[in-house]
Amino acid sequence: MTKRCHWPGTDPEYLAYHDLEWGVPLHDDRLLFEFLCLEGQQAGLSWITILKKRDNYRKRFKNFDAVKLARLTDDTIEQLLLDTGLIRNRLKLFGIRTNAQAFLAVQKEFGSFDRYVWSFVGGKTIDGRRGPSRPVPATTPESDAMSKDMKKRGFKFVGSTICYAFMQAAGLVNDHTGHCFRYRELRDSVPTSNPR
Predict the structure, then answer these.
(1) 17 is annotated as an active-site residue
(2) How many Å apart are CA 86 and CA 53, to the nearest integer?
(3) What is the pLDDT at residue 196?
(4) Is the N or C terminus of the chain more exposed, i.e. has fewer CB atoms within 10 Å?
(5) Which domains does the chain have, with CATH numbers?
(6) Each residue of 145-158: b (16+ CB within 10 Å) or e?
C-alpha cells in the first residue's frame, strides 16, 4: 500500500494534487503566480475548496496571464463577483489584479519572478524533514521574510502563513512527511538544504 501524507485523505482530486503537484519545485513564472494567487484565495478556507474551483479561476482569470490581469477593469472584476465558481470576496478578487501589477514589477526588477521567490530559500528546496516529532509549522523565518518583502512591494494576501503554504505547494520546501513516497522521490531528485 502506498504511504502518503495524511492530509489528502481519500478524495481522488486531492490525492492527484498531492501525488503529482504539491511540493514539486516550480520555476515557471506563470505557474508560480497562479499558485501565489490561489493560496491567497484560500485564506480562511480549506485548500480542497480552491482546488475544486481552480479550473474556473484559470478560465475567468485568463490562465493567470499577469499582463492581461493587470489591465482588468473594476467593472470586469465586479462581474466576476457574481460567479459562484469563484470565492466571491471582493478584496480577494481585486487582489489578483493588484498582485498581477506587483508581479510584473518584480519580473522587471529581478528578470523573473522565479529568481525573486527562490532567493528566499537560497535557490534550493528546504528539506522539512517532517515526521511525528516534527510537526509542520504555519510559518518560518523564510516565509516571514518573503511576506514582509512582498507586502512592501504591494502584494495582497501574502501574510507569512499564506507565503509558507505557497512555498510548500511550489516546492521551495519539501514538507511531505518522511514516510510519504513523495518525500523520498522529491528529496532524491532535487538539491535540498536544511538551514534549521
Answers:
(1) yes
(2) 6
(3) 46
(4) N
(5) 23-193 (1.10.340.30)
(6) ebbebbeebebbbb
Q: Are 94 and 72 in contact (CB under 8 A)?
A: no
User: How many whole angstroms separate alpha carbon 13 and alpha carbon 173?
Assistant: 22
> Which one from 14, 22, 34, 39 is the annotated catalytic residue?
39
Residue by residue, what is the 3-state secondary structure of the chain? CCCCCCCCCCCHHHHHHHHHCCCCCCCCHHHHHHHHHHHHHHCCCCHHHHHCCHHHHHHHCHHHCHHHHCCCCHHHHHHHCCCCCCCCCHHHHHHHHHHHHHHHHHHHHHCCHHHHHHHHHCCCEEECCEECCECCCCCCHHHHHHHHHHHHCCCCCCCHHHHHHHHHHCCCEECCECCCHHHHHHHHHCCEECCC
> What is the rounded CA–CA span in Å between residue 60 and residue 83?
9
Q: Running along the chain, 196 residues long, what does each successive block of 10 average in pLDDT?
A: 90 96 97 98 94 98 98 98 97 98 98 98 93 81 98 98 98 94 87 56
Catalytic residue list contains 7: no
Q: Choose, from 14, 22, 47, 116, the residue flagged as catalytic.
A: 47
What is the chain's alpha carbon radius of gyration, rounded to the nearest angstrom? 17
